[in-house]
Specification:
Layout: H1 2-16, E1 22-30, E2 33-44, E3 47-54, E4 58-68, E5 71-80, E6 83-94, E7 97-104, E8 110-117
Antiparallel strand pairs: 1-2, 1-8, 2-3, 3-4, 4-5, 5-6, 6-7, 7-8
């Protein structure tokens, strides 16, 4: 009986997680201009993995990704004009949109933008 309850609890948690698997795109207005970024997310339980690409910083791997209900978070390391920058993303999923808040580890970058699911 305890196994069944534990299994049901695990299933309920997995079922309540937002489905972010797929490709998402959006444009962020940065101090260096507008930057379109594409995210390809994969979800396994509460773990979020994948990659992100932009013309400004190329392709980066998503690290430390988590999904908790409709909340997601992850880190990305990028290089821009010879500078290595660690970005921390937090987001709220609302259907086929994610509203992101992004901050650099050193505090030099802080912005909000929305991405849309494209596939």
């Amino acid at each position: 009986m305890q196994r069944l309850l534990l299994l049901l609890a695990v299933f309920a948690l997995a079922a309540s997680a937002a489905d972010v698997t797929g490709t998402w795109k959006g444009t962020a207005n940065t101090p260096m201009g507008a930057v379109e970024r594409t995210f390809v997310f994969k979800v396994d339980g509460a773990k979020l993995t994948g990659e992100t690409t932009s013309a400004m910083s190329g392709k980066s791997t998503i690290a430390d990704g988590k999904v908790d209900g409709d909340k997601i978070s992850f880190n990305v390391n990028i290089t821009v004009q010879g500078y290595d920058i660690k970005l921390h993303y937090t987001g709220a999923v609302d259907g086929k949109q994610i509203k992101f808040h992004v901050e650099s580890e050193d505090g030099s970058v802080s912005l909000d933008y929305t991405v849309d699911k494209v596939s």
